[in-house]
Amino acid sequence: MNLHETIRLIGDQALTASRKMVRLSTKKKNAILNAMADAIDQQRDLIKEANSQDLALGRANGLSSAMLDRLALTDARIGNMIKGIRDVALLPDPVGKKIWKRTRPNGLAIEKKRVPLGVIAIIYESRPNVTSDAAVLCIKTSNAVILRGGKEAFHSNLAIARALQEGGASAGLPNHALQFIETLDREAVRELVQLEDRVDVVIPRGGESLIRAVVENARVPVLKHYKGVCHVFVDASADMDKALAIAENAKCQRPGVCNAMETLLVHQDVASAFLPALGLLAARQKVELRGCKAACSILPACKPATEADWSTEYLDLILSVRVVKDLKAAITHINTYSSHHSDAIVTSDARNAKKFLKEVDSAAVYVNASTRFTDGGEFGMGAEMGISTDKLHARGPMGLEELTTYKYLVSGTGQVR
Amino acid sequence: MNLHETIRLIGDQALTASRKMVRLSTKKKNAILNAMADAIDQQRDLIKEANSQDLALGRANGLSSAMLDRLALTDARIGNMIKGIRDVALLPDPVGKKIWKRTRPNGLAIEKKRVPLGVIAIIYESRPNVTSDAAVLCIKTSNAVILRGGKEAFHSNLAIARALQEGGASAGLPNHALQFIETLDREAVRELVQLEDRVDVVIPRGGESLIRAVVENARVPVLKHYKGVCHVFVDASADMDKALAIAENAKCQRPGVCNAMETLLVHQDVASAFLPALGLLAARQKVELRGCKAACSILPACKPATEADWSTEYLDLILSVRVVKDLKAAITHINTYSSHHSDAIVTSDARNAKKFLKEVDSAAVYVNASTRFTDGGEFGMGAEMGISTDKLHARGPMGLEELTTYKYLVSGTGQVR
Known about the structure:
The radius of gyration of chain A is 24 Å and the shape is globular. Chain A has 14 helices and 16 strands. By secondary structure, chain A is an alpha/beta fold. In chain A, β7 (230-234), α10 and β8 (261-267) form a beta-alpha-beta unit. Chain A has a seven-stranded parallel beta sheet. A four-stranded parallel beta sheet of chain A has the order 5-4-3-6, sandwiched between helices. Chain A folds into two domains: 3-224, Aldehyde Dehydrogenase, Chain A, domain 1 (3-Layer(aba) Sandwich); 230-373, Aldehyde Dehydrogenase, Chain A, domain 2, CATH 3.40.309. β13 (364-369) of chain A pairs parallel with β16 of chain B.
């Protein structure tokens, strides 16, 4: 069987499994998830052994220590993986939820109800815990899932996937409901994302280049976010202490994540009051500043920003700073350069807050809070498959509900048109 | 300016207009719609003149009389167009609707709220009323819209679009919120559907080949349905009179539409009781029958069906007929060959009804009613942009809500993580 046929077969098997998944009750699915958690626990040694193989290969291939750290599976991390699965089992099941029900004048009863998407493909890089996190969210929502992990974590991913499959099977998970693509050929991804009559959605998780490659090739719909270029705008009426605390948190608490701030905008009326304090903060936190002309004139440590800076996701302790004329200019800057992920205003002016919330075209818009809160857990969704900066289907954190669709169930007594 | 630049400019202008659209109140938008209706009324003569041009060209180019009929704008049809606009003005506005609101333990107030998608491109064929229908649904939901109609209705579409633009402008519609692509170059469509940073969604409306061409080229998300291969399954316990009435309605009331039946499945236990009556109905309604071996052995007028028949949308008085072993075989047939649009069971068995509703993977699933009801109006949605057989974002009839997305508005008092 060549690669094309192999991937088609995986698609066929997933489709068949997805038809069986719709028959599982919530109770049954939760039992499957708990059996998966048990299997991970029982196969700890196998998983750690596989992980050692990946780490050895990684060292030999010169992976950075940061990469190796992300790859490593300690007992604590395996424990978190197990806890993560059990937590998903405890979450409410969106499948079967009634969105609305109405009876039409002709007597037809129409119910709009949540149902699984069908087959979900996840393409991811680096951290092996994604194998488990992503798979269980799909199973919980009665979807069949096809996993394709990155080459650095290949052995770890495979060991985790096998444990999940074995644990699931022991509790009644339909055959092929969880499949892991075992070839590392990059062509496999291309084949997978073209299976439009078998795969309902593909979710790429990883760096921008991975995501772009998936979008380029996909005929299947993609749920994604390319990057997070998030802003904090310090308005003229901002409480300066709050603005500084929010800026520090949004930039420094975890600079490598998508909801961290990349650009700070400040109203010209408060630039000379705010920026020196920001300069001290940057010096203390070792944040490199890149600013517009006005910002640089106030902050001697600030390098001049280039046009490219305004749309760069640094993922690092670097911050671009721009002085803007007013709220309108701030909104225009954000709508032009933002990745439409998370953007915040710090203000004491209720009208400005309202205008910012209304006119900034991003998944999450904040007043007087750090952009770092854009997260399924923080939003009270219980779990997160990732974050979407698309506008269709899912926008912002994707929880369980975003892994479902709906259908209309129409019951009559012989009605015709 | 070359075509590439022209289309990009149209995209830029739409994006700018979409930023202004979010500021319009419901009242303002409804006033704009009514002004558009007035303008169509005032420009009736111009519109009819343009339509005569299209009809003359159509005749010269040998369009079929059915095509010419669909193209023709009578006073009654223009009246319907005007009424359609005023009806949309009366519908509730989904923009600004709260989906949920919660306050988190840390005090953050999170609101999930409906907002416009932004820029919607509509690519359509044939009937000129789509120009008005599609435009007003987009405007009602605060979206900017780019229209690209088919060449047969070019002059009619242009005249309608100009009337809508002039009427809208007189009531405060932002400049370029409604744009009509005036070039007939097919390359324009390709350019348009690649504008992923300007256009949020493209909705193709027309034949399968138009839709496939859009999907092939699109980098922008597409909401679509290729075709409607709809089924009626007559179960062993079906009321035969109801089954016959539903079959007649689903096949004959309007055979050229997507929710008409293309294949009838019948349980083997009632095939010899039901099919002769179906044969009489087919003879009376001049429906050509194409059947499986078992169906042909009961129905002498039945031609043998080929494998291709099971997935063909005839859009005509042709029906494929298959005798199936049981409910399970019916569900498997439907999930294999259906276009996942609308499928029905006729049964008196509540368990079978439930199983059919649960396991048939289509946008609308029916018990004891005709598939012809899959329609925004019939479902009580008030208006319809089209029907989606996709599972992401919109499934089934697309009304106003499906032309919106949502965002999270987060209000705090200085919260950091």
